Amino acid sequence: EPDVTIVSGLKDMAVFEGDDVTFRCQVSHENARDVEWKLQDVALQNNEMNEISVEKGKIHTLTLRKVTEQDIGTITFRVGPHTSTA
């Protein structure tokens, strides 16, 4: 299985409280396994507040819904040994 790398990393975002914010990270291969999103070192799950999806097979997205001050911090995307932060 080929080593999946990050082709295009996360970008820093600034949004207003109550808005949604979307982070995108592009990887080198489709169907990447061992993928993880974190906010302040806490693993995020796909639920009503966090939408985690994959577009076109290689673009992994995280949308945080109706952000609050508690959502301020570092977002980390990890695939295998590679990470990107914003």
From TrEMBL:
It is found in: Cytoplasm. Its main location: cytoplasm. It comes from the Eukaryota. Signal peptide: none annotated. Residues 2-86 form the Ig-like domain. GO terms for cellular component: cytoplasm. SUPFAM superfamilies: Immunoglobulin (SSF48726). Pfam families: I-set. Keywords: Cytoplasm, Disulfide bond, Phosphoprotein. It comes from Nycticryphes semicollaris. The keyword Phosphoprotein applies. This is OBSCN protein. The lineage of its organism: Eukaryota, Metazoa, Chordata, Craniata, Vertebrata.
